Amino acid sequence: MNDVLKLQEVTLEYPDGVDAAGNPAVLKALDEVTFTAQRGTMTAIVGASGSGKSSLLSVAASLITPTSGTVVVDGTEIQSMSNKQRAALRAEKIGIIFQQPNLLPSLTVVEQLTMVAHMNGLRGAKLKQAKNRAMELLDLVGLEAAANHKAHQLSGGQRQRVNIARALMGTPSLLLADEPTSALDAERSASIVALLARITGEFDLATVMVTHDLEMTDSVDAVVQMADGRATILK
Ligand code: ADP
Ligand code: MG
Fold it and tell me: Rounded to two decimals, what is the model's pTM?
């Protein structure tokens, strides 16, 4: 099955105070958004600030339940799932890369990647396996030599590479990235996008990346433009 992510007429309303008549008002962050993302492809989400890009990713990540419409991840509809099932889905199928890497200052690079394994109580051979995977991923993102460095010893681009490697620890099929290059200069941004493209191919992922950099849209397979919560497929 090629469609890893499928959104159908997804509408998301946030409560927004009261209207002139004193009735609860809502803000429509997503307005009947429909699109699919296929395995082995990279989709860019573009659009002005406030147009609904982060809301779209949060819904795709199963972090927010839409007001209406359906979201399907790897063949499973997520709206009928319990919170526990969603957490399991995220752990198994979805890698999330936020704008700011949010690395813990006291941990080394390899520990940032194995933290979840530790928290899940893995020991012995299982923990060794997680450490081996972490080292493989650090090699993939070009950070093997920095495995024992702390966050403050890394450049902005290196931190974002740790963030990307960490998102791959759970072997996802869907990779979601919210403005992963916003804190970086043009050269570093381009190399992060090239890395995401390589990972997308290598692991056969559906990658969906929010970007405000329209130049990036040349190097992706699909482009969805958001405006006032509505999506237009540009490519
Ligand atoms: P973008 O990522 O494109 O900047 P967002 O998805 O963050 O857009 O926001 C879309 C709209 O929803 C904006 O008008 C924003 O103010 C509003 N919004 C976002 N998050 C919330 C929230 N948690 N509660 C209320 N309104 C929100
Ligand atoms: Mg945003």
Answer: 0.94
Mutate to test the pocket of ligand 1, among 12, 54, 58 (most ligand atoms within 8 A of CB): 54
The strand pair at 76-77 and 68-73 is best described as: antiparallel
Residues 6+ apart with CB under 8 A from 158: 143, 146
Q: Determine the 3-state secondary structure of 106 from DSSP.
A: coil
Ligand 1 within 6 A of CB of 14: yes
Q: What domains sit in the chain, N to C, each tagged with a CATH number? A: 3-103+154-233 (3.40.50.300)
Phi, psi torsion values for 180, nearest 5 degrees: -65, -15
Question: pLDDT tens, 123-182?
Answer: 999 899 999 999 999 999 999 999 999 999 999 999 999 999 999 998 999 999 999 988
